[in-house]
Amino acid sequence: MSRLNILVVEDEDAIRAMLVMVLEQAGFKSIAATDAEDAQKILDDSSPDLILLDWMLPGISGVEWLRRLKKEPMYRDVPIILLTARGEEEDKVRGLGCGADDYITKPFSPKELVARIRAVLRRSGKIQGLAQIALGDLVLDTEQHRLSIGDKQLEVSPTEFRLMQFFMTHPDKVYSRTQLLDQVWGRSVYIEERTIDVHIRRLRKILSEHGREDLVQTVRGFGYRFSLID
Amino acid sequence: MSRLNILVVEDEDAIRAMLVMVLEQAGFKSIAATDAEDAQKILDDSSPDLILLDWMLPGISGVEWLRRLKKEPMYRDVPIILLTARGEEEDKVRGLGCGADDYITKPFSPKELVARIRAVLRRSGKIQGLAQIALGDLVLDTEQHRLSIGDKQLEVSPTEFRLMQFFMTHPDKVYSRTQLLDQVWGRSVYIEERTIDVHIRRLRKILSEHGREDLVQTVRGFGYRFSLID
DNA sequence: TCTTTTTGTCATAAAAGGGTAATATAGGCT
DNA sequence: AGCCTATATTACCCTTTTATGACAAAAAGA
Question: C-alpha angle A197/A201/A204, rounded to 5°?
């Protein structure tokens, strides 16, 4: 598999250089642009797998450009991570849901950045860990988007599928509602924590039709755990 | 498990003192140095698990020292968190490029600092002993939030879990009710001391179902002790 | 555009947890 | 033994947390 390509759009030289270095180090290819116009050009003839976009840019701002991109069907699906300065409109990024897949506040550690990038890529399907994840008689097939117990198919919605995917790749560990939101929905969406309960309920309902409602366990005061063992 | 040791390198007395206090409070051991030379000496004969390093130091600057450290194989893997003043942000980011694992902007809250430290320690694997605490055939797993004796699961409530966690990480030592309240419930809650008795009782009841009620021992006039030996 | 599905939110029910006080028991001292 | 104090135990009630069902907005198909 060829290296994934990341477009960095950042006007400050020092930060841009650092980003590129970090990305290289982490095994990504990268192209850098200093403003939205540049970025647009690059986008038009190469097709990056992900865009790291500074919130503040000279000329067309990062957010502004982001909005435009999200209107074009052609580029809508390119995952985007926003770079923002601490305290700067952080709430707005979350609240407005302007289309970014995640955001990260400057300054940040290289490890954190890379972890975020990987998470977003994974969510958007660009990195597929294993095509098939099996746990006991549970099989989740990411390619066919199918979930089955033994040879019985389970009918799950997209969100339920992603939730299951997360659970099956992170079994036996408790996750808080916040963590689940971050991991499964993405950091930039703002959703009530209680909504998790409802999704858990939906999952359990489906699982219980096959006698496996015990897979998703409540850990009172902390969150939920997915585990084969009781 | 012995407490993790943190080397604080900071020239301003007030801040250094504060740091040391916060660290103690959070259960870390700490050694302080006021400049890079001092720090180097300490580093040479003790081996801290993490270094909290001020960006600006008299003499050899923090970053400069950091660079040197990262060149020495011996010290390369010691995780480092940079302390920086607000407004030096770009420099900081560049600092991360040179090997720091995280940075934190002054002023910061103790809570934030401790959280960062824990995160870095966890990432670097130093804190993994915290995931599972085993004492005899008792195993408390903080990741899974499970407590078991042998292969039997114990059903404990959140508070009981925390109490057990404290006991298991501080065995063989007597704690007064006040100390237990401070450590397990937190300093800021006001609860009747007698309430502890009730929780002890609940714990004992659970433990006694597995024939281990002798683990929690009453030390009349002082408090309670958790110990495998009778 | 018109359905159908998906998904987030709310209101309410249900359950679990946790603090307190009252009572019982035990330890230790004179 | 008798008394005082410290701890154990129990029951109760209030609070917090989670489960559940219904609804409507949004998204996806058709």
Answer: 135
Q: Which of B100, B123, B145 sits opposite A174 (nearest CB)?
A: B145
Q: Which residues contact A132 (CB under 8 A, 6 or more apart)?
A: A139, A140, A141, A142, A143
Q: How many helices (H) and strands (E) does chain A have?
A: 8, 12
CA torsion through residues A144, A145, A148, A152, sign: negative
Taking one residue from A and the other from B, the number of pairs with CB-CB distance under 8 angstroms is 51
Instruction: From first to last of the 230 residues of chain A, give the pLDDT tens digit.
Output: 568 899 999 998 888 888 888 888 788 989 999 998 889 888 888 888 899 998 888 877 777 888 788 777 778 788 889 888 755 555 555 545 567 888 887 767 777 788 888 888 888 777 766 678 899 899 999 888 889 998 899 999 999 999 999 999 999 999 999 989 989 998 878 899 999 999 999 999 999 999 998 999 999 999 999 999 88
**Min distance B156 CA to chain A CA atoms (Å):** 10
In chain B, residues with a C-beta closer than 8 Å to the C-beta of A110 are: 96-97
CB-CB contact of A48 with A78 (8 Å): yes
- Yes or no: say if B16 and B39 are a contact pair by the CB < 8 Å rule: no
Query: What pTM value is reported for the model?
Result: 0.72
Between the alpha carbon of residue B5 and those of residues A116, A230, B76, B102, B139, the distances in Å are 29, 37, 17, 17, 25
Whether residue B107 is preceded by a cis peptide bond, meaning omega within 30 degrees of 0, is yes
Nearest Cα to Cα of residue B39 among B15, B68, B3 = B68
For every residue of B63-105, which 3-state class applies, written as one string? HHHHHHHHHCCCCCCCCEEEEEECCCHHHHHHHHHCCCCEEEE
Structural domains of chain B, ranges and CATH numbers in brackets: 5-128 (3.40.50.2300), 131-226 (1.10.10.10)
Q: Which bases of strand D have any atom within 7 Å of the beta carbon of a protein residue?
A: 6-11, 17-22
User: Is some CB atom of chain B closer than 8 A to the CB atom of A87?
Assistant: no
Segment holding B46, helix H or strand E: none
Q: Are strands A146-149 and A152-154 parallel, antiparallel or unpaired?
A: antiparallel
Among the partner-chain residues A108, A222, A230, the one whose CB lies closest to the CB of B145 is A222
**What residues does B29 pair with on adjacent strands?**
B5
- A204 by DSSP, 3-state: which? helix
Count of beta carbons in the 10 Å neighbourhood of residue A51: 26
Cα–Cα distance measured from residue B230 to residue B228, given in angstroms and rounded to the nearest whole number: 6
Asked whether residue A186, judged by its CB, lies under 7 Å from any atom of the DNA or RNA strand D, the reply is no
- On the question of a cis peptide bond just before residue A107, with omega within 30 degrees of 0, the verdict is yes
